[in-house]
Amino acid sequence: MTLWYLARAAGFAALVAATASVMLGALASGSRTGDPQSRDRRVLRQQAHRSAAVVTVAMLLLHVTLLVLDSYVDVSVPGALVPFTAGYRSIALGLGTLATYALLAVAVIGAARGRIAVSAAGARAWRAVHLSAYVVWVLAMAHGLLAGTDTGTWWSWILYGGCAVAVLVAVWIRVVAADTQHVAPLTTARRRLTSGGVR
């Protein structure tokens, strides 16, 4: 049973780290102003975002390894690697397997950003793949809610609810910041036109 408890703890740790990574990534990409302090904060958020992503991958690999080694549930190596084939809650574990593969793809693409995003087309492709981290997070939440034996306890609902609120607030801030950044240049241009600054 010890491995089972550790596996569950690693799963929750992976979800919390994934939530932090998604939240920090949204906040870092949503703050693109010319202010030096804002740039410094953005760099710090990106570093924290990457660190949280590394912790997520480590906790996820520990979670999967412990589940396979544990005898409390029937999760074989093929069941863990091939989606929807596990003997224990196959749909829920299948979602977890898909989330794992997608997370690893996002992590590899994220690590290779310097080589991929050297052109406009490469930057667009990198951004599209990197945005799939939101899908990974949704799959991870669904996996935890459907597979977790702790689902239904008051503390797990607080944890899941807290993760959901954190990501939704971060995404909302990112969207508002993006709208502000698109509106600001237009407002400045209008002011210049009305004040005669543009000739």
Structural overview:
81% of the residues lie in helices and 0% in strands. It contains 8 helices and no strands. Helix 1 (2-29) packs antiparallel against helix 7. The chain is globular.
Helix content: over 70%
Kindly name the structural category. Answer: mainly alpha
Q: List unreliable stretches of 5+ residues.
A: 182-186
Q: Overall pLDDT, averaged?
A: 85
Number of strands: 0
Overall 3D form: globular
**Through-space gap between termini:** 77 Å
Largest sheet: none
- Helix and strand run: HHHHHHHH
Radius of gyration: 21 Å
Task: Report the β-strand fraction as a percent range.
Answer: under 5%
Key attributes of the depicted protein:
199 residues; mainly alpha; 0% strand
Précis, in short:
This protein is mainly α and 199 residues long.
SSE order and pairing:
Layout lengths: L1 H28 L6 H34 L7 H5 L8 H22 L1 H4 L3 H12 L1 H15 L6 H42 L4
Helix pairs in contact: 1-2, 1-7, 1-8, 2-4, 4-6, 4-7
